[in-house]
Amino acid sequence: VGNVFSGQVVGETAKTLSERFGKVLQKRQSVSINRQDVSTSINTQMDSLIPASKISNLTQGMFVGAVSDNFDERIEQKIFHAEIVVDTAKVSAEMKSYRPIPVIAEFLNGDGSDNLRETIEASYRMVKQDILSLLPARWSELRMTQI
């Protein structure tokens, strides 16, 4: 129930996901140099673990998420930012072995023009006619059972 997996999303969805993933304490160091002195300052700040800007710029194959655990199956790393690595050579080899999908029904006239709409309308008229021809017989049966 608490599992979330997401690819690229923008706006409120990205913001909501970022808030759900939480924040992490970041240490920042800055160095100031002037003619007489060098000063270093170190401070800490809470930043989003996965910022909304990062979620809204995920590329193909990249995703973020969070998983929930059970009492008997604890998961240490619940939040993740990952990438699916595709072996393109293997996919290409697999695609070469694909067979074309067989044509079950073709909706082309003899001249090659599409007649799908006409076929659907003819089927609709046939079903409607079948219903109209069945109604009188069923109607009289229904009247007989009510008497």
UniProtKB/TrEMBL annotation:
<protein>
    <recommendedName>
        <fullName>Conjugal transfer protein TraG</fullName>
    </recommendedName>
</protein>
<keyword id="KW-0472">Membrane</keyword>
<keyword id="KW-1133">Transmembrane helix</keyword>
<keyword id="KW-1003">Cell membrane</keyword>
<dbReference type="GO" id="GO:0005886">
    <property type="term" value="C:plasma membrane"/>
</dbReference>
<dbReference type="InterPro" id="IPR051539">
    <property type="entry name" value="T4SS-coupling_protein"/>
</dbReference>
<keyword id="KW-0812">Transmembrane</keyword>
